[in-house]
Amino acid sequence: MSNIKLDFEPQTFQNVRDFKSDNMKCLVFAYVSLVFLIKLVVCDGGTNQIDKIIDLTWAVDVNPISWPNNKKFMYTRQVEKQNEDGSWYATNEYCSGEHGGTHLDAPYHFYQQGWKVDDIPIERFFVQGVLVDISQEVNDTGRSTQLTIDHLDKWIKEHGSLPNNTVMLIRYGWSQYYSDYDAYMGEGATPNFPGMTPEAARWLVDSKRIIGVGVDTASLDQGNSTTFDVHKILCSHQIYGLENLNIPEDLPAKGFSLVILPMKLKHGTGAAARVIAVPKSMANW
To answer: Cα separation of 19 and 214, whole Å?
Structure first.
């Protein structure tokens, strides 16, 4: 058997080493990129996107939360009967103010040139949702707690910029008191519960991204407000309110859309509303 001489130039081995080195660099870069992406998704709440429909609405019954000078919901006539042929028949009639239970505040509520309920463009009821949760602070400091610009700036720092066409939900942790009128509204003649500062309301207006604000209390303003500055600021920019929402503890800061379905009241200053959080995968708006 003849001897075979393998005559590799030194440069050939160098090319092989460079090839391995370059591929290793690519693998390391891909690994680091993947780790960064996973961390980004986790930190940004991506993995916390909701995967089911969540109803944020309290059922309307004979004991709903209602603003003190608003007529409470009540049935004025109820019929339930078995007909002679064995069939069943039932019907109800009721009376209610506009601002009780889970409901929408139309801009006209505090702004003469504002939209009434039936004027609000329907596109503004299919929106992006974000949540600012200060419930822990409320637990620590109580009913006097206010949402401030600092809370909003902190949210932006942690979660990024607000999307367009957004309704911001604010969770004070007040849903836990809904079944107890005195605990929810406060004992005494003057309501007493957490709210937003006027400066925070102006921040929302200036963002140009917010078209609605929802809270798990009975008012956008702090309970003891007599001037309702937050209402006035938001309504004067055609930003509607959602009050008495049932916001669960596990709703994430972002990663959901909202469907808002108020009763289409002609000339309405407000209306009972069904408010639903839906997964991003189900929303194409």
So the answer is: 58
Give me the domain span that covers residue 234: 48-60+98-282
> What is the reported pLDDT for 158?
98
- Residues 38 and 224: their CA atoms lie apart, in Å, by 45
CATH code of the domain covering residue 221: 3.50.30.50
Does residue 90 lie in a domain region? Answer: no
Number of structural domains found in the chain: 1
Q: What is the largest CA-CA distance in the chain?
A: 112
Report which of 98, 113, 102, 114 is spatially closest to residue 270, judged by C-alpha positions. Answer: 98
The strand pair at 240-243 and 103-105 is best described as antiparallel
**36: pLDDT strictly greater than 90:** no
Dihedral over Cα of 137, 44, 230, 55: its sign: negative
Q: Is residue 135 part of a domain?
A: yes
Residue 74 identity: M
pLDDT at residue number 48:
77
What is the C-alpha separation between 129 and 154, in angstroms, rounded? 17
As a whole number of angstroms, the distance between CA 262 and CA 196 comes to 23
